[in-house]
Amino acid sequence: MEDTIKIYLADDHQVLLDGIHSLLNTIPNFEVVGFSLNGTNLYQQVIDYSAEILILDLNMPEKDGIEVIKEFSQKGIPCKVIILSSFDDLKLIKEVMRLGASGYLTKKCAGENIVEAIHAVHNGEDYFCNSVREKIFHLVTKDNQKVNHNFTLANTILTDRELEIITLISLELSGKEISEKLFISTNTVETHRKNIMKKIGAKNTIGLVKYAIVNNLIIP
């Protein structure tokens, strides 16, 4: 039997809250422990209800979602945050990534993706719905070549080679393409990839790309 995942909802639209609440209540191991229509005191409420996942709208009255996630980041709360927003602006997406959000869904795709997102984030993965994922990868396509060649190794846990490889992965190069570019075997590329993921705590490719963007290996 799966452990119960405790979820807190924060959105200023009651109808949307009710719809998400009803949907999540149909999932056996999900428990919606509370909800809020504004951003005030969300930090304390999430702690009081021992929530593991916070579904957070960015456009909230009294205290917006950015302020909320900044507070969570500063205070080191263990609850993981999935952003639910009407907007898919790249600067906004990058900002919440930098602040530690584990997921980002647009409200258009919430119905079909929210259950999958909660499972993924609870398992330690980063999750972005398809439209957001496409925008993120568009930042780092080979055509755009948004590599930060002035990046320094200060405060990074990755080696020079690992930084090269994570950047090339973010540019959507395949293992074969990376091996040819760096004159190493595909097995070596895969070994580096596994080591990178272990070091930075990423569990999928979008986690690697998120790390590259947040740490300015790639410049949006």
Description:
With 220 residues, the protein is α/β, with parallel strands linked by helices. Helices cover 48% and strands 14% of the residues. The chain is built from 10 helices and 6 strands. It has helices spanning 14-24, 42-48, 65-75, 90-98, 110-122, 130-139, 160-170, 175-182, 186-200, 205-214; strands spanning 5-10, 30-36, 53-57, 80-85, 103-106, 127-128. A 6-stranded parallel sheet has the order 2-1-3-4-5-6, with helices on both faces. Helix 7 packs across helix 10 (205-214) and helix 8 packs across helix 9. It is elongated. The protein starts with a strand and ends in a 6-residue tail after the last helix.
Write the layout of secondary structure elements.
Layout: E1 5-10, H1 14-24, E2 30-36, H2 42-48, E3 53-57, H3 65-75, E4 80-85, H4 90-98, E5 103-106, H5 110-122, E6 127-128, H6 130-139, H7 160-170, H8 175-182, H9 186-200, H10 205-214
Parallel strand pairs: 1-2, 1-3, 3-4, 4-5, 5-6
